[in-house]
Structures are given as structure tokens and as C-alpha cells.
Amino acid sequence: MARIICFFINKANDQIIAMNSPPNPTEVAMKNVIRISRGEPGHWVGDGFPVRTVMSYHEDPAAISPFLLLDHAGPRDFPAGAVGRGVDWHPHRGFETVTIVYAGAVDHADSAGNAGTIGPGEVQWMTAGRGVLHRELHGDAWARAGGRFEVLQLWVNLPARHKLAPPRYQTITNADIPEAVLPDGAGRARVIAGTFVGVTGPAQTFTPVDLLDVRLVAGAALTLPLRSGWTAAVQVVHGEVTVGARTARAGDLVLLDREGEGAAVSAATDATLFVMHGEPIDEPVVGYGPFVMNTVAEIRAAVEDYRTGRLAAIPDTTD
Fold first, then answer.
1. What DSSP character marks residue 303?
2. Which of 135, 151, 184, 239 has its CA 20 to 30 A from that of 143?
3. For the whole model, what pTM was predicted?
4. How many CB atoms lie within 10 A of CB 26?
């Protein structure tokens, strides 16, 4: 049997290194599709993010652990000059937010003094931990010109032992994200976090998590290597694909079961997929708005800390 090879591109020097292949679908048990959801109807977060929540811990936290929520903002066209749109200062505690930009730009600032702008293909990974205030606005320069805006934001849970970790901020640029070239000209997979066919992403995580930005060409077929016992989900950002025997289109979230060690994906059109794969955190999940903890008492403490200013404070240098 022929051995399929993937390649890792080291962006620092464009060196190409052969890596081991994904599993052959005839040799492993595939994960089954549990459900496909779209998160209709949509709603606004602030005045800058028209989102559909396609995955949420409010429905079945155990089924999606270690993930908590996935919002798909846009795609939407904004007029030129609409600066300052987004979500002003607000708190978080007990989890992490991962923001991936597909079109437009996002400005971030937080109470720990971090700030930055991410554009298409880039990622902002914020660990709220014991508590942070932050704001997310349309990128100022992009907003002045206007155009298409599309962003995903994933909430990743923290285990109890790290719920009160110090806040942390990671800006992950395009140059930071390595790519695996898929076999037979199928496309490319950018590895944001974790490992895919031997390629390791730059994001630092508290528990084992793989996050992939996969670009498939029309007619391509791919077997995603996934671990039995781990949660796996695929958000179709653009295009149309078949996962297993189910068809999913742009905006659909495909949730897979934990049994099985792979998922067969084929592309009917050029497609962009966001793949989430992680080891479950088997702990209670109690959430209230921007706080996600393990107990009601911890939620009450978070609310009280925010109310009294103990959670965090807006930096004095911020407008």
C-alpha cells in the first residue's frame, strides 16, 4: 500500500519537511456525526459583531468539553467610517477566548495592559483566568475603509486547577502559524494549537487542544486524524463539504462523537474549515454571562469581585 506523505512548511526559511500521513480511513474506525447546527437566529454582540452561536455549553456542556461556545460573526459588509464599533469594556473569568479573523480586523485591549490588532488569518488568544476586563472593536484603520467582516470566537474552558490562573495574552500572526501541505493537492492545514501530522502550532494551552484552519480545494478528500475519547467539531466557514455521510455548508457546525479515530471529509467546492479537537475536562460547568466556573458559589464570588472592582480595573491610560 502506498504511503501518503504530508509536508510541514517552516515559514522562517521556507524549508519543507516530510511528515507522517493522517490515518487511512479503511484502517481506523471513523467518528460519527452527532448533529449539524447553524445557530439560527443571529444576534448582535455590542454594535459590531452580528453573530450566530453555533455551539454552546448551555445545551450540553459534556458533549463539547473542553470547548464552551463558538460564535460565527458575519460575514457582513460594513460601510466606511464606522469606527469604534464592537464591544466596550466587559469582564471574563474562568476560561479563554480564541478569536480568528477571516475578513476585516479586530482591535483588542485588556486590563493587564495588553493591546493589539489582528487581521485576516491571525489569532488573538486571551486567557481570562482569575479575571480580566477587555474590549474588542473593529480595527480602526479597516473600519475607516469599510468592507467585509467575518470572525470566529471560540471559548475554551479551563480546568478547576487553572480557573484562577493569571491572565495571559497571545497574539498569533500569520508568520507564526505553520502549515501542513495535504496530500494529492487537497489543500493546506494551518496549525494554530496542538499537533497535526507532526506539525505543532504556536498557541500555549492549559489542556491538550488542537485547532486547525483547513483550506480544501474542490474535489479534495481528507481523513482528519482524531483521537478516540476526544471531542471533535468542524465549523464550515466557507464552501460545502461532506463529513462522513452528512453534507454541511457555510455556517454549519458539525459535532462528532468521541468514539473513533478519524473523520472523512470531502469538498464539493473550495472550502475553509475550522477544526476543534480536544481532551474533555470532566468537571462541572456553571456559567453566568461572562463567567464560567465549577460551582454557583464561585460564580457569585466572580460577580461580587467584578461589582466591587476586585476582579480587574480599566487601565488609567485607556480612553
1. H
2. 239
3. 0.91
4. 7
